[in-house]
Design goal:
Ureohydrolase; metal-binding; 11 helices; alpha/beta; 8-stranded parallel β-sheet; 8 strands; Arginase; Arginase, Chain A
Length: 309
């Protein structure tokens, strides 16, 4: 049984629209802690993080949105994640938009470097989030965290200096891609990131793709951070996200991924991102994200309760 800590990250400044700040409250209201405790885990809720006050930050490009706010969140969450990664508990970061991963992933990478172990990242997402500050077409910073974590240039304003430790792109796997910007695509192809789009899932199955990556993590004695974006899932069953892209993972594909991750025993930290309760339908998406998290932490098909919505 796991010792789990929950930390809210009510950030919406990276998304370009309101609503993701309500995500942590939605997870609590839907019963995330209670579901995990019912599986036998110890769960401690640390409340919500707050962003650092960075003072004025001059944006290097005029189209960037909310750079000082996102930088404040990045610095705060980086510090929280590094501290939590040094401890015995498995942290779950309840978002909040995907810009929160600029802090969580880099904080875990810094702690992994202290341990002398490689940090791996599984990015379950319709988007690569591999834009730089310069290449981002929208200026919304939730499209940049993976590029930042992998050491792409131009991000010094986020932490106020260079990254303590970056992620080796070879240790990153994205699954679920179906919307990638033009320059972002070029950056991704020039990197050593493993990127599987939905066609790869259609042709090979999500189990094959995921197990290949997990075998690499295990062989390297790596630490594994999973970042689960709501838009990894098809919007027909997970509508509460501001960046809907048709053709995402099905209910069973998403659950199978979580079940395989549980069986591997490799997951050391988890992001739950881009839940926008303002766009949800009777809590449908929040409950689905809770069910997926429960599968990641050991709930089996035969254990799943029937609920009326």
């Amino acid at each position: 049984m796991a010792n789990i800590v929950l930390l809210g990250a009510p950030i919406e400044a990276g998304a370009g629209r309101r609503g993701c700040a309500m995500g942590p409250a939605a997870y609590r209201t839907a019963g995330l802690a209670e579901d995990l405790r019912a599986l036998g885990h110890t769960v401690t809720d640390l409340g919500d993080a707050v962003p650092d006050d960075t003072g004025p930050i001059e944006a290097p490009f005029s189209h960037l949105k909310a750079l000082p706010t996102v930088a404040g969140w990045t610095r705060s969450l980086h510090r929280h994640a590094q501290d939590l990664a040094r401890g015995p508990a498995l942290p779950i970061y309840m978002g909040g938009d995907h810009a929160l991963s600029m802090g969580t992933v880099t904080g875990h990478a810094a702690a992994a470097a202290e341990l002398g172990r490689p940090q791996f990242v599984l990015w379950l997402d319709a988007h690569a989030d591999f834009n730089t500050l310069e290449s981002s077409p929208s200026g919304n910073l939730h499209g940049t965290p993976l590029a930042f974590a992998c050491g792409q240039e131009g991000f010094d304003s986020m932490l106020g200096g260079p990254l303590p430790a970056s992620i080796d792109p070879h240790n990153v796997c994205i699954i679920g891609l179906r919307s990638v910007d033009g320059v972002e695509r070029d950056l991704l192809r020039a990197s050593d990131v493993t990127a599987h789009d939905m066609r790869a899932i259609d042709e090979h199955g999500i189990a094959t793709l995921l197990k290949e990556f997990l075998n690499r993590v295990a062989a390297a004695n790596g630490l594994l951070h999973v970042s689960l974006d709501v838009d990894f899932i098809d919007p027909e069953i997970a509508p509460a996200v501001g960046t809907t892209v048709p053709g995402g993972a099905t209910f069973r594909e998403a659950h199978l991924a979580m079940e395989i991750l549980h069986d591997s025993g490799l997951v050391s930290s988890l992001d739950l991102v881009e839940l926008n309760p303002f766009l949800d339908i009777r809590g449908l998406t929040a409950r689905l994200m809770l069910d997926l998290t429960a599968s990641l932490f050991g709930r089996q098909v035969l254990d799943r309760p029937t609920r009326s919505y």
